[in-house]
Design brief:
This protein is an alpha/beta fold. It has 10 helices and 13 strands. It has 2 domains: 228 residues, Collagenase (Catalytic Domain) (3-Layer(aba) Sandwich), CATH 3.40.390.10; 126 residues, no CATH class. The radius of gyration is 24 Å and the shape is elongated. Bound molecules: zinc ion. The site of zinc ion has 6 residues, from helix 5.
């Protein structure tokens, strides 16, 4: 089952990419795809900013209109948002079992944060989240709501008359809490929970167990990354690292957060992970072939000459290239993980002694 993520024109493709990356790092039957398709503002008149502030609803609203409030922009009706999903579905020949979610900054007529209809078309409102927390990207609550809407659709919790018995109108930290306030969505994100009544419903609706596993993994991952970003992660270790089939460096304790290094830096880092006892600078060139193999796998398009040049330079003890790269890698790790956690991942060692990464070999999982 595919989940297609699309955007309205004002929502940046970089952010679409961030949300997509966050959701696709867990394997399972849900496959996430993104498409930066640019909707034509002439075809969809309501996407034109020039209409501001005199926007009238062309479609009848799903329910009553929200009054226009200058400052938050004119609201769109749900039909207008869903019409973009329907258009996308037709144009790209999307399977009717797949979901299409529109990520948008535009306010909708009922001011809902997200909604998915029976045709599996949905919208997620991506603006204003930063009012309710600091230092974290809006991608966490937005990704959470994608998962929430998929699950709710599969659980069939909406009835013709509106929300059914499985929607909780009081906040209990379950994925099916009906949230009036964005803070309540943040609560769900922090609990990453599904209550026991909702679990019974999941079993009754015979939702695939591997899909539920994937949903739980994603929720747990979003929770861990969100708390880490907020700086309230109290994990003291032990930490582990996974090098996956695509040479990504992932940290499971931080919700599979990816440590991002340039390919040459990654190559060196992976080599040191493979030799937990460490490698002396003068012995580094003994590993030239191994380094070249890893680097080649990571960059299949590079020529042999380019690969040889980069690796030979890196391992030459007198060139200073290694120590430069070592300090650049450590700096990048600190920037991405913060002072405290980065200590577990840094390359340590002085000249003449072995350089190593202090992660235990039991906690290093190399999958290629
Ligand atoms: Zn529940």
């Amino acid at each position: 089952m595919k989940i297609h993520l699309i955007r309205s024109p004002e929502y940046e493709s970089e952010n679409l990419n961030e949300v997509h990356q966050l959701l696709s790092s867990y394997n399972g039957p849900l496959e996430f795809e993104m498409n930066g398709y640019e909707f034509d503002k002439d075809e969809f008149y309501f996407l034109q900013y020039a209409l501001y502030p005199f926007h009238n609803f062309k479609f009848k609203s799903w329910s009553k209109k929200t009054n226009f409030i200058k400052g938050i922009g004119y609201p769109l009706s749900w039909e207008e948002l869903f019409s973009l999903c329907s258009y996308f579905r037709k144009k790209f020949n999307i399977n009717k079992n797949d979901f299409v979610f529109l990520l948008t900054y535009r306010v909708n007529s009922l001011n809902w944060f997200s909604h998915c209809n029976e045709e599996r078309n949905g919208f997620i409102h991506a603006a204003d989240w930063d009012k309710y927390y600091v230092q974290a990207h809006h991608k966490y609550p937005v990704a959470y709501q994608v998962i929430e809407n998929v699950l709710q659709n599969l659980m069939k919790i909406e009835t013709i008359d509106g929300p059914g018995e499985f929607v909780h109108f009081y906040s209990m930290g379950c994925i099916n809490d009906f949230c009036l306030d964005k803070r309540q969505v943040i609560l769900k994100l922090r609990t990453a929970d599904i209550c026991s009544d909702c679990f019974k419903r999941i079993l009754k609706m015979k939702i695939r167990p591997d899909l539920i596993d994937q949903v739980l993994q994603i929720l747990e991952g979003l929770r861990a990354q969100f708390l880490f970003k907020k700086g309230i992660n109290r994990i003291a270790g032990p930490f582990s690292i996974v090098i996956d089939e695509n040479f990504k460096l992932l940290i499971p304790q931080l919700g599979n957060k990816e440590l991002i290094l340039e390919p040459l830096f990654s190559t060196l880092y992976i080599l040191l992970l493979k030799y937990p006892e460490g490698i002396r600078l003068k012995d580094l060139s003994d590993h030239n072939n191994e380094l070249k193999n890893i680097y080649k796998k990571m960059n299949p398009n590079l020529s042999k000459t380019q690969i040889d040049k980069s690796i030979d330079e890196l391992t030459k003890p007198i060139s200073g290239s290694f120590s430069q790269k070592k300090s650049k890698i450590n700096k990048k790790i600190t920037t991405q993980l913060g002072e405290t956690i980065s200590r577990h991942f840094q390359i340590t060692g002085k000249r003449g002694e072995p350089f190593r990464i202090s992660l235990s070999p039991d906690n290093t999982d190399i999958r290629f």
